[in-house]
Structure formats: C-alpha cells, structure tokens
Amino acid sequence: MSEGDSSGESIHGKPSVIAGFFTRLGQIYQSWLDKSTPFSAVRWAVTLILTAIYMIRVYILQGWYIVTYALGIYHLNLFIAFLSPKVDPSLLDDPDEGPSLPTKQNEEFRPFIRRLPEFKFWHSATKGIVIAMICTFFEAFNVPVFWPILVMYFIMLFCITMKRQIKHMIKYRYLPFTHGKRTYRGKEDTGKTFAS
C-alpha cells in the first residue's frame, strides 16, 4: 500500500480524521433527509422561505442578477422534468410499449411516474437556492448586466417551454398529477357484534 493513499487512509491504514469527519457529516445529512421525507408541506415551506430570503438579499444588494437568472433556468429545468413522464411516449417505437400514462380521472388508477420525483425535485431546488445564496457572498459572481433584459428573456423562455410541455401533454393525453387511488365506501361498521 502506498503512503498517502487517495482513499482517505492515513499512513497506518486507518481512516484519516478528515475522511471520518466528512463521512459522519454525510451520514447526519442523509439521516435528516430521511426524516424529512414524509413532511412534504414543511419541506416546501422551508424552500419558499429560503427563496424569499434570497430574493430580499438580491433586492437589497442590487446585484447578482446573472446568478438569479441561472437559478431561475435551473428551477425551470427541474419543473419540466417534474412534469414529464419517466418514459417519454414520443421516444417509443410502439405507443403501447412501456408503462401507460393516466389519461382520465375515472379510469383504472395508474400513477404518473415522473422523470424527476417530488423529493429529488425539492432537494435539487433547495440545494440550488443555497448555492445561489453562497454565490452572493463573492463579488466575482456579481457580473454587471441590465437585469430587465434577463427578466424578459426568462419570461419568454418560460412561456415557450411551458407551451411545448402542455402540447406534449395534450398530444399524448396524460395528466401529470394524480391524487391517489379512488376509494369506494362500503357499509358503515357500527361496531356491534352478533352473538350466536
């Protein structure tokens, strides 16, 4: 074994203190992510609060518009992936091949399988906001630009992209949102038992 191995081991073959620290930090981070999984409303509320803090910071500093534009484009790409099916029907040779998409509210329940699941969408969006916030602390990212042009270009890009996505949904007749399996109510259980 060579000294200074790239796998984070020290000279004596034991894991280095730095590698152990980052491993432990990663485990704690993953543990918090796992605990937050069922609380989607709380997760998204925290992300919206972070977004508001970021926007207020950009407004007060009057800069970092390129970073904000890049963040908007990143979030737009995430949103499109969130609305898109995992298997794109336009890429299939046979339309009946692959999982079918839900097309009506009253037919058999078929969940919409997304290209980007909700949790990964939230996680990536939140990471993007945190990275953009960190960028606002470095003057190198404050590129001077006329921001109204960026806003107009982003609005144009958003409209064109969403129009294409909606046309795709209409053409292949799928709904990107399902509200769960339809439930049927039987007779009410009164809790009474009959003695034999």
From TrEMBL:
Membrane topology: Multi-pass membrane protein
GO BP: protein retention in ER lumen; retrograde vesicle-mediated transport, Golgi to endoplasmic reticulum
Family: Belongs to the RER1 family.
GO cellular component: endoplasmic reticulum; Golgi membrane
InterPro entries (UniProt xref): Rer1
Protein name: Protein RER1
UniProt superkingdom: Eukaryota
Localization per record: Membrane
Keyword hit for Secreted: no
Gene: RER1
Keyword Transmembrane helix: yes
Organism this protein belongs to: Pygocentrus nattereri (Red-bellied piranha)
Keywords, ordered alphabetically: Membrane, Transmembrane, Transmembrane helix
Transmembrane segments: 41-60, 66-83, 145-162
Described function: Involved in the retrieval of endoplasmic reticulum membrane proteins from the early Golgi compartment.
